[in-house]
Amino acid sequence: MHSKGLNIIGVSLDKEKSKWTEAIAKDGLTWTHVSNLKFWDEPIAKQYNVESIPATFILDASGKVVAQDLRGPELRAKILELLAK
Questions:
Q1: CA separation for the pair 56, 61 (Å, rounded)
Q2: 42/61 Cα distance (integer angstroms)
Q3: Which domains does the chain have, with CATH numbers?
Q4: pLDDT of 5 over the 90 cut
Q5: CA–CA distance from 61 to each of 15, 21, 35, 58, 70 (Å)?
Q6: How confident is the model at residue 80 (pLDDT cuts 50, 70, 90)?
């Protein structure tokens, strides 16, 4: 759905760069990934009050969180709804 405007950013709570980058390659993840390699002290995780993983946040074009922790069909439906606007 990237061609329709969906952008995914993965924020990792890993501590070791090699394990983090190996997992990205092994899983064939093609979207943007970031990490400060600070585990639970990751500033982005703290900013969004992440207390468990995985955590998902859907932000609108202005950066406002419009949904979080959706999975499966609910996640897909919300993304499709937002991309249709």
A1: 16
A2: 24
A3: 2-83 (3.40.30.10)
A4: no
A5: 30, 28, 22, 10, 18
A6: very high
The predicted-structure confidence for 21-74, as pLDDT tens digits, reads as follows 999 999 999 999 999 999 999 999 999 999 999 999 999 888 899 999 999 999
Distance separating the N- and C-terminal Cα atoms of the chain:
14
Closest by CA to 23, choosing from 47, 14, 50, is 14
Q: How far is Cα 16 from Cα 9, in angstroms, rounded to an integer?
A: 19
Cα radius of gyration rounded to whole Å, the chain: 14
Inter-residue contact 12 to 20 (CB < 8 Å): yes
